[in-house]
Amino acid sequence: MSIKELKSELLKIAKVRSAISLLQWDLSTYMPPKGASWRAEVLGELSEYAFFLFTSERMGNLIEKAQEEAKSELELALVRLTRKDYEKYRKIPLRLFVELQKEKAIAEKLWEEARKDNNFLILKDSLKKIVKMVIDIAEHIGYEDNRYDALLDEYEPGFKTSYLKEICDYMKRALIPLLERVESSDLEKEGKGSLKKGSFPIDKQRELIQRVISAFGFDLYAGRLDTSPHPFTEVVGLNDVRITTRYDEADPFQALLAAMHECGHALYDLNIPKEFFGLPIGDGASAGMHEGQARFWENIVGRSLPFLTFLKPILDSTFPSLSEMSVVDIWKKLNTVRRSLIRVSSDEITYNLHIIVRFELEEAMINERLSIEDLPYAWDEKMNEYLGIRPDNHRNGVLQDIHWASGHFGYFPSYMLGNIYAGQIYWKLKENLPDLDKMVSEGNFKAILEWFKENIYSKGKFFEPLEMIKAVTRENLSPSYLVRYLEEKFLRNPIKR
Ligand code: CO
Question: 161-496 in CATH: which number?
Answer without folding.
Answer: 1.10.1370.30
